[in-house]
């Protein structure tokens, strides 16, 4: 369904800080993104009220709430909390509750919303029991003499920040939050006010499942207030998922102590091998990658390089037909929360001004039942694709326009031939966001050529390759930047939420004046 009924009992949840749910003097009303009507109120934390959050964060020791030598029983405790939370989220009524909440705050089809909840639950399934302590595993290396050895530990940062966006209201904050807690950190958590009620309900679920109330501080309200509190609290590391501009500001404000999953202008290459049987799936996957969640995914397909063989096979017509089947009634297309309609259409106009560019499909304001109710502060356009000649992308100004990320249902198409693969690679080299990518080909020579000369952190390869739909069973994150974050796996948790500490043990026995090694 469209999810247009009002949320029950609109209210302003009190943000937890220092183990207590504290009220705020002011609240803000979040409008229904489908109608503009008041939907829910959330705390509007003031800078003065945020001092309690920075004070709470500043009290956290650098050695964390636990580590391999301090309160190691908490690893097992969080394994138990995680297992209970996974069991709760497996209950049909709980799954439906979170899916509905996701859909209402960040409109997307019920299938997309439910998948987000299921991925979160499967992550919790993966990390129940002893997995938190396994994620903190180190190694031991023999020393130079008896009684000497070095132990590598994964050590927490202690006080940390966690800032997450609107587009995945439960998956991103839940996975990163749990990783921070497993490693022994205390996070100050902030997520976009438009969806913060979702993560607030997840935190309450963790409390219900036995998580200590004081382990997480949840700050609702404006982003700048949260950023200032994280800085004032002395966060020793902060994970940020969101826009490139905010990421760079945080990096400057926090002295570079950040991990980032920021902009994602993601590309897909359709290789030279195509058959009648491969066309339907490729068209379906390209449509999903570009337009599911109305294109509001950091992994959304932004540029599609189509080999001439695919063009000859009719890929553009297949894409157009699939895009036309998306409707507001089932939220397979819907409001865009960070770009207005005018801004998106203006960008489409800039794309069409590139020499040789043409509108493949879309390019119009979304019409139909309910479209007029979408608030003007948001955007609503048809799934859109603009074809830009590969030759025009050699001009830096045209390239900058064509590779501007629109966090909405807009993608750029271009065509290449066998002799133009190097030109395609040159385009990929010039891009500066390296989150996801796809090489749709079963030709190992072609695929290896592309993979060997690119750097995207999560790259899918093969005839069924995609750019979106990151599950819980593999690493997901950007590459090519020392600040690049990861999510979803033990390796990602160790990278983002812990640091390396080496402890060298040397207990003897002593060998005379210490100049000689013990040999017997």
Structure in words:
Helices cover 35% and strands 18% of the residues. Strand 12, helix 10 and strand 13 form a beta-alpha-beta unit. The N terminus is likely disordered.
Attribute tags:
35% helix, 520 residues, 17 helices, disordered N terminus, 5-stranded parallel beta sheet, 7-stranded mixed beta sheet, globular, alpha/beta
Name the poorly predicted regions: 1-13
Residue-averaged pLDDT: 94
**In percent terms, what proportion of residues is strand?**
15-25%
Number of helices: 17
Q: Which percent range fits the helix content?
A: 25-40%
* CA-atom Rg in angstroms: 25 Å
Structural class: alpha/beta
Please state how the strands of the largest beta sheet are arranged side by side. 14-15-16-13-12-17-18
Largest sheet: 7 strands, mixed
* Morphology: globular
Number of strands: 19
Distance between the termini: 77 Å
Question: Can you lay out the helices and strands and say which pair or pack?
Answer:
Elements: E1 16-17, E2 20-21, E3 27-31, E4 38-43, H1 51-58, H2 73-90, H3 92-105, H4 110-126, H5 131-135, E5 139-142, E6 148-155, E7 159-164, H6 171-182, E8 186-191, H7 196-208, E9 217-218, H8 223-232, E10 237-241, H9 244-253, E11 258-261, E12 266-270, H10 278-291, E13 301-307, H11 308-313, H12 315-324, H13 341-352, E14 358-361, E15 384-387, H14 396-402, E16 410-416, H15 421-430, E17 436-440, H16 444-452, E18 458-461, H17 490-497, E19 499-506
Parallel strand pairs: 7-8, 7-10, 8-9, 10-11, 12-13, 12-17, 13-16, 15-16, 17-18
Antiparallel strand pairs: 1-2, 3-4, 5-6, 6-19, 14-15
Helix pairs in contact: 1-8, 2-4, 3-4, 6-17, 10-12
